[in-house]
Amino acid sequence: MENWRLLGSDFADAKNLVQILYRATAKTFQSPRIMRHLIYALEGAGNYTDAERSLDAYIFIMENEKKTIAKVRREPRDLDDEEIMPDVDSDEDILRTVTAGIRLLVKYLNNGSKAMDLIHNLERNVKAWKVTSPDVLASVYHAIGIANSLWSIQSISIHLRK
Questions:
Q1: I want to staple 115 with a disulfide (CB 3.0 to 4.6 A). Which of 29, 44, 98, 147 is the partner?
Q2: Sign of CA dihedral 46, 47, 48, 54
Q3: E strands of the chain, at which residues?
Q4: C-alpha triplet 130, 133, 139: angle, nearest 5°
Q5: Quick one: pLDDT at residue 78?
Q6: Over the stretch 106-153, which tens digit does the pLDDT of each residue have?
């Protein structure tokens, strides 16, 4: 995935990368990293509908993983549990992926309603996870801005039709 990005995210290579990632999803059980990379590769290949589906799957996986981790931290554990490493992206990676998904929804799919739903969760997570990285916060607030701008245009259109 990193090589594809470094080589310019070529459209022709994205289709091959998507096939590799699809095969990887069949061999792993809900890996958030593979789903995250699949979102970017599908967008690069121009397959926006499947990229949106991958975003939904990624968000579903990450929400469940976060709930599981929170539950495990509340319960008493054995020493052997310390060796178990969950397959979870960092908070910053999650936020970057969701902001990329919002950009996908706004730029290519024209889905302001879903983008607005995602920004509400995004704002809540930024506060709950106490994210302080300026790059991540800039990406988050940019996504909030573009989602709000699309929704304002779409909601005016809906209002004027009535």
A1: 147
A2: negative
A3: none
A4: 100
A5: 57
A6: 999 999 999 999 999 999 999 999 999 999 999 999 999 999 999 999
Name residue 57's amino acid. Answer: A
Q: Which of 104, 123, 15 is nearest to 54 (CA)?
A: 104
Are 36 and 59 in contact, with CB atoms under 8 Å apart? no
Confirm if 105 and 64 have CB atoms less than 8 A apart: no
Reading the block at residue 97, the tokens are 């992926």
140/138 Cα distance (integer angstroms):
5
Higher-scoring residue by pLDDT: 159, 59 = 59
Instruction: Determine the Cα angle at 122 with ends 22 and 143, to 5°.
Output: 80
Could you tell me if 99 and 122 are in contact, meaning their C-beta atoms sit under 8 angstroms apart?
yes
